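Quarterly update from the structural biology core.
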Amino acid sequence: VVMGASTARAWPEVFGPSAPVSTPSWSYVGEEGAEHWAEISQEYSGCKGEHQSPVDLTGGRPAQYSPLSFRYRSNPLSVLNDGKSVRVDYPPGSYLMAGPRSFELTGFHFHVPAEHLINGVRADMELQLEHRDRRGRVAVVAVLMTAGRRMNSILSRIWQHTPGGRDQRFYGRQTGINPLFLLPNDRSYYSYTGSLTEPPCTEGVDWFVLAQPVEVDSSYIQSFLQTVGTNARPVQPLNGR
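Predicted structure, tokenized:
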């Protein structure tokens, strides 16, 4: 695991509303829960890989710092409740710059509680911003969120329009959002190579976990739990990363 700085096109479409609906069903609990993902289907065999996510970020070492640059545009809100998370689809034109590398934002979603830990501490919620470069490589920026009293206009807008029913979507042409306003002021980060945290658990994902959490009003977290419930995959072994 590296703090401060930072394998081709055969990536499946796995993020957000573009995820295929014909894939084998999975869950976070029970017989289709996270500990059984690799057994559900051959398609999910990657979930027993050696470089899985999320992880507990301990023992990180300082590295040459390459600042992250977020070039996000405002766009109409397109939000889906797929029963496993609240997912916001994002159209082309917004980018993450990680050093010389450019990744286009494809969407973002939430986990309660947070999936990543920092030195054994778990936040109340985690925002995961998904990006993809021209070669198909995936980069995810994780923003840890703690329950407090700070209102956030973007989260309020998303939660206000999130459908209560599974597989329902809201699209608001006049409802604008920009995830730039969900980021902390301090953009320092932990970096490591891992996987998707949902089936098919594809490895080779570049993770950037922002070190500074964002305080959000506890009502947002309670609203998410009422709509979706808990949806955090257990921490995976570092295996030398």
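Residues 2-20 have pLDDT under 50 and may be disordered.
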